[in-house]
Amino acid sequence: MTFSDKLKNYDTLVFSAIAFFAIYLFCSYNGVGISPDSIMYTSAARNFVEHGNLHTFNHKPIVDFPVFYPTYLGIISFITRLDPTVFGWWLDAFMFAALIYCSGYIMSRFVPTNRIYKWLILAAIILNPGLLQVYCYLWSETLFILEVLLFMIVFRQYLLNHAGKWLVFAALIGAVACITRYAAVTIVGTGGLILLLDRTLPIRKKIGHILIYGFISISLLVANLWFNALHTGTVTGPREPSITPFSKNLYYFGTVFCDWLGFTPNQYFLATPLAAIILIGFIAALAFNFYRRKLDSFENLAITFALVYGLFIVLSSTFSRYERINPRLLSPMYIPALWGYTSWGLLFLKRLANPKVRIAVAIVFIGAMLGYITKIFMVDHFRYKDQISDEYGNPGYTDNDWMESEFARYLKTMDKRIFKPKVTVYSDAHEAVYFFSGMSSFLVPHKFFQKDVDKFFQKKHFYLIWFKNLENAELINLKDIQSRVPLKTIKDFGDEGGIYEYEE
């Protein structure tokens, strides 16, 4: 092995260590960030260890999310005898370091490859504010993004030799990814699209490989959805129709890329055209690679996944309601999109015959990348100052607002005998009730599901734990409830909320 070959690994290891340290820095004040989703994952992981099932804190199977990430947390918790909220930042730091190592491995095999390019892109990945945020929380994206790169590594090996074992291996990674995040159907779609476009495969072999790949890659997802339907009556939990049209979702998609490029909100007028350019550019690049019969490169895999994932998020947001398109939702797309829109520069430089022109173009590219890296570094620095230097912490249930909350302190120490046995407890933030008190409760119904609302008001006796600062416009609110039934105040915390009882 030459010194150059060793450097391919050593420099990537250095960047991986930097990535690990970055997560350590952002979790150094209050540990890993805890959001409502994190509590769902954590409670299911705890039940996996204690009772061998994947029930959440309200004693129901986890349905809104696939089963693998809480299982993954549960296995680590069982081995280490530590709670996910304790080892969470360590796990995220290791996975972020692994993500950087896989990124370096892939870029070392670009055609052509360039070490300075790799260093600049690795720095841009580590410093991306969206990825840094994701890897500071107990979120399934931390595992899913790594699975995307592992899929690319294995599927590319299949494309080089069309060996069945590599196809099966890639399909298995896709299958596990599908029960990590439902959005992993985009991995299935990426592989299926490339198989369909691959003109080097004889038609009979192509059909066979598509069937094998498709069957294996969706097998675990089908089993997960079947289990959900059997035990809860829904395949992915109750879903509401979208209230944002395609044009609005395309705009939100563009605003995320505006943020990633260092634009300010004043420049969001560029969001929709930028989103259109990004997606159309990927379509054009994929068509060009198909025309050249060059579908087996990492660069093309990145382009195809970025296109499939981006379209999936925009279109699914148009038909189903979930959180507005944001950096977290698009985080799996960042690395492939970055590769897709920069790697072509390496080929362009190689084709420049004049050395002076080549050097001049390279200097311009390096200068642009350094300017971009500086911009996102300043965003990260501001976040570090706000969350760590100013001692606030990662936003969520462990930040200073909650740690200093009188309501949260009461929930941690309250005598649960204030609640009569077998009387249902409701809340507008049932995950917060569990996180602070360890007590199970149920979410008040969504306004959209009128049958659930009617059923709620037919209750003759219930308790209500209400957090005023977490009110959700999609849920029935405190005023709605008070207008229908007389609530007795058990404990009042002013602007923070209170605990109430209704008994007919």
Describe the structure in brief.
With about 500 residues, the protein is mostly helical. The protein has helices at about 5-25, 35-50, 70-80, 85-105, 115-125, 130-135, 140-160, 165-180, 185-195, 205-230, 245-260, 270-290, 300-320, 325-340, 345-350, 355-390, 400-405, 405-415, 430-435, 450-455, 480-485; strands at about 240, 320, 425, 440-445, 460-465, 490, 495-504.
What does it look like?
- The chain is mostly helical.
- The chain has 2 domains: 3-389, no CATH class; 405-503, no CATH class.
- Helices cover 65% and strands 6% of the residues.
- It is built from 21 helices and 7 strands.
- The protein has helices spanning 3-26, 36-51, 68-80, 84-107, 115-127, 129-134, 141-161, 164-178, 185-197, 203-232, 246-260, 271-292, 298-319, 327-340, 344-351, 355-389, 400-403, 406-413, 430-437, 450-457, 478-484; strands spanning 240-241, 320-321, 425-427, 442-443, 461-467, 488-492, 497-503.
- The strands form 2 sheets. A 5-stranded mixed sheet has the order 4-3-5-7-6, with no helix packed on it.
- The chain is globular, with a radius of gyration of 25 Å.
